[in-house]
Specification:
Helix content: 55-70%
Number of strands: 4
Structural class: mainly alpha
Distance between the termini: 24 Å
Length: about 550
């Protein structure tokens, strides 16, 4: 079992990096803002028709991103509330309640895709396609556009502008997301993922029960769900459902799709700043943290629950996992989806062992910067890069700088604010949920495991992941509103300081490299960056983790 897990992980990472390298070179062309070959004429025509001229300062760029997402939220909310009056609703589903519609609209606008409902029994085809799928494209494009702006701040020697947000959003959707999604959707259809507009099909089971077989345009939503690190499934079982994820090949392709663009952005960064080593060092730090987490979760799930080891033969924990994928593929999927801000799941995280469930939770809590969501993971990791550079500057008594740009008090204040937003939301939200009767009433399990469910839900919402630990009845007004607030704040209260940092750095002139400049591409800096990420996550969340999954693990050990 251990050898198969090692082989699966190694082959996955090798193929991921092989595919991400050429894609990163293409993304670097988008960051450069120059017209692409063969489509430059089309772009110029689009810009003239839309009246787009010139580049934007960081404040205008930020305002455009916020306005774009606000309009998307209003449109999606209207679709969900008026679903019963709209077309492509063969099952005649009514509109959603106001609190569930609000939660769902916020969820998909923020790239979280938290789902407090069962898709096949709640949403029409129109809501799934024109609402959720479209917003999956737009939320993913928004995160990538913010990453583009921050990368340009480092790549440009001295500039007051960061590009044009409307042009970036258009190019990302047309030339990056749409072509990749088309190819992936065709692969999924070939593997058996359904793509249909027919009504649900009645059938009689072997036991004689009359049931309905859910149908729908699944493959098209599945592609952007993964490539955009959205995670919202067409069905309640998400990627554990055979209509969403039918084969081992589709499962492997899904994992590749989740981390493809986040990994490619590292290569694109090195290309854009003119030093490929910078992007490779960030990618190496991400990969090493990923492997560290993989070693813990594989060890935990292969040993299984100590109280059940005598009954399970080989000792592995198969509870809550698809037998067609097994432990190795389920564990790797759980790591991939929580390393990225993608809520897709092919196993029940609530059924993992205590330490096995802690790893996906902790990957979210450190800000989902180990590859991370499309765009958001990369600019989140760049914040830790600035923090690591600042710490190194304090050690050697020099003004910290990165890629020739001096890091001043303003940048560090914005960095600290952006890094601390999500821990504050997770910890304060968990405390509020545990103290309030409405919050505690949703817990289906007592003790440390029940607290882990609450902590996981808040970690998932504030870090815009969307996966659930399960065991929590979260479709209530209290939870819908609490999680909606955490999703909004976790997304946009991070984007605002990131854009402020980008504007400040873009205006600075790059300083020449000197003998006192800290190399940011070698093994020493990679180690410093990893230590910064791990220590920040540990110091912030260890008390909460000790009350949840760690206490749950210790209680299982003492029950032997």
């Amino acid at each position: 079992m251990a050898s198969s897990a090692l082989l699966l992980t190694a082959s996955y990472l090798a193929l991921l990096l092989l595919l991400a390298w050429p894609l990163g070179r293409f993304i670097a062309r988008l960051i450069d803002t120059r017209p692409l070959p063969f489509v430059g004429t089309i772009e110029n025509m689009l810009w003239r028709l839309a009246g787009l001229r010139g580049e934007m300062r960081w404040q205008t760029y930020l305002l455009a991103i916020l306005m774009f997402n606000a309009l998307g939220f209003a449109l999606l909310l209207a679709i969900l509330l008026l679903q019963g009056e709209l077309p492509l609703n063969p099952q005649h589903f009514p509109g959603l309640s106001w609190d569930l519609a609000l939660n769902t609209a916020v969820s998909f606008v923020t790239n979280t895709d938290w789902q407090a409902y069962a898709g096949e029994s709640t949403l029409s085809y129109f809501s799934q396609m024109a609402g959720l799928t479209v917003q999956n494209f737009f939320s993913a494009a928004s995160g990538i556009a913010v990453a583009f702006a921050l990368i340009r701040a480092f790549a440009r020697r001295s500039s007051t502008t960061l590009g044009n947000a409307w042009q970036d959003l258009t190019r990302i959707v047309l030339w990056l997301l749409l072509p990749l999604c088309l190819l992936l959707a065709l692969l999924f259809i070939q593997q058996g993922v359904i793509q249909s507009f027919s009504a649900y099909l009645p059938f009689t089971s072997l036991e004689g029960a009359r049931q309905l077989l859910p149908m729908g345009p699944v493959a098209s939503q599945e592609a952007i769900k993964l490539l955009g690190t959205n995670g919202g499934g067409f069905f309640n079982a998400n990627s554990a459902h055979p209509f969403e994820n039918p084969t081992d090949l589709s499962n492997f392709a899904q994992m590749l799709a989740i981390l493809l663009i986040p990994a490619a952005l590292c290569f694109a960064f090195g290309e854009a700043v003119g030093d490929a080593r910078q992007g490779r060092s960030i990618l190496l730090a991400m990969t090493l943290i990923f492997l560290l987490c993989a070693s813990v979760i594989f060890q935990a799930e292969m040993q299984g629950n100590p109280a059940l080891q005598a009954l399970s033969g080989d000792g592995t924990n198969m509870e809550g996992k698809e037998t067609r994928f097994g432990v190795s593929a389920s564990m790797l999927y759980a790591l991939v989806t929580t390393a990225a801000s993608c809520g897709a799941v092919n196993a029940m995280h609530d059924s993992f062992t205590a330490l096995g469930g802690m790893m996906p939770m902790w990957l979210m809590q450190i800000g989902e910067v180990v590859f991370g969501g499309v765009g958001s993971g990369f600019y989140g990791m760049l914040l830790f890069v600035l923090l690591a550079v600042f710490i190194a500057g304090l050690m050697i008594g020099r003004t910290p700088e990165y890629l020739g740009k001096k890091i001043d008090v303003r940048e560090m204040k914005m960095t600290a604010l952006a890094i601390l937003v999500t821990p504050a939301l997770v910890l304060c939200g968990s405390a509020l949920a545990m103290m309030s009767g409405a919050g505690a009433a949703a817990m289906l399990n007592p003790g440390a495991h029940g607290f882990s469910e609450v902590l996981y839900a808040l970690s998932s919402a504030a870090n815009n992941n969307g996966s659930a630990f399960a065991g929590l009845s979260a479709n209530t007004p209290f939870w819908n509103l609490l999680l909606a607030f955490c999703m909004l704040a976790g997304r946009f209260l991070t984007i605002v300081p990131v854009m402020a940092i980008a504007g400040s750095l873009a205006a600075k002139k790059a300083q020449p490299v000197s003998s006192g400049t800290l190399p940011t591409h070698g093994a020493l800096f990679v180690g410093l960056l990893i230590g910064t990420v791990l220590l920040t996550g540990a110091l912030t969340f260890i008390p909460a983790l000790a009350s949840g999954p760690i206490a749950d693990h210790l209680s299982a050990e003492t029950s032997r």
